[in-house]
Amino acid sequence: MWNDRKQRNRRLARAEKAVTKVEQGSRILGRVLPAAVRLWLRSQLDQIENLTLNLQGSDRQVLSGCIPGVSLAAEQSVYKGIHLSKVNVAAEDISINLGQVLRGKPLRLVKAFPVRGAVEISEDGLNASLAATLLSEGIERFWQSLLQRPEVAAEVEDYYGTAALQSHAPLTQARLTAPFLTLINGDKQLRAGLTVKQGRHLVLNQPTWLVSAQDRPSHALKGFAWDLGSEAQIHQLTIVSKRLLCAGQIEVRP
After folding, report:
1. Are 181 and 206 in contact (CB under 8 A)?
2. How many angstroms separate the CA atoms of 42 and 37, rounded?
3. Distance in angstroms (rounded) separating the CA atoms of residues 205 and 179
4. DSSP letters spanning 152-188
5. What residues are paired with 92 via a beta bridge?
6. Residues 207-222: what's their mean pLDDT?
7. Of 14, 55, 156, 226, whose CB count within 10 A is highest?
8. Reduced to 3 states, what is the DSSP secondary structure of residue 204?
9. CA angle at residue 202 from 198 to 208, to 5 degrees?
C-alpha cells in the first residue's frame, strides 16, 4: 500500500512537471519569440531604428512552428547597403524552427514566404546606397541592357562620344526631382519618369539625356521596359519631394 501511494505521488509529480513546462512555455513564448525575431532582423540588417513588431497567432499555432501573421514598421533601415527611410510590411504563414529557438538556437526560416508592404527611400539614402553591391550590380545591368540596343548606343555616341560606350564608370549620383529620377553615370546623365507595368516591368517615361545642361529627348528609350524579375510584384512606384515611394510584394527565402 505504501509503495502504491509512492508510485501514485510520483505519477502526480511527473504530471505537474509536464503541465508546468507547457504553462511556462506559453508564458515565456510571448517574450522569447519576439526577442528571437528582433535578433534575426538585426542579423539581416546593417542598421534599424524605431522597430515596431506585431506577431499574430495562438500558442498552439506558434508552438507548431507556424506564425500566422507578422507586421513590421521601422525607420532608417539598412539592408545589404541599401538605405531605407521607412519600411511598413506584413507577411503570413511563416514557418520557423521554433523548437530550436526555445533551446536557445538562432531563429531560422524553414520555407519561403511573400512579404507585402511599402518602403520609402530618400534622395540622400539613394545616394548612400550607390556603393552597395546589390544596387550597383543592378544598375550596371540596367545600363548594359540600354547600350545593347543599337539605337540607344547611337544616341549615347552622338551625345557623349565613342568612349562613353566603352566606359564602365559606376553610378556616381542620383537625383529625385518629382516626378523624375536622374541617373549620373560618368559623363552620361539620364532623366526619366518611372512607371511599372504588370508588376515587374519598369517603364521609362519621357526619357531625356542631359548634355551640357541641355535636354536631349531620347527617341530610342521611349517606352523602354526593363524586366525586374519574376520575384518582383510592384504595385506603386512614385517620386515625390526627393523621395521614392514603392509598394508591392517580394519573396523572402530561407
Report:
1. no
2. 9
3. 10
4. HHHHHHHHH-THHHH--PPEEEEEEETTEEEEEETTE
5. 69
6. 94
7. 156
8. strand
9. 140
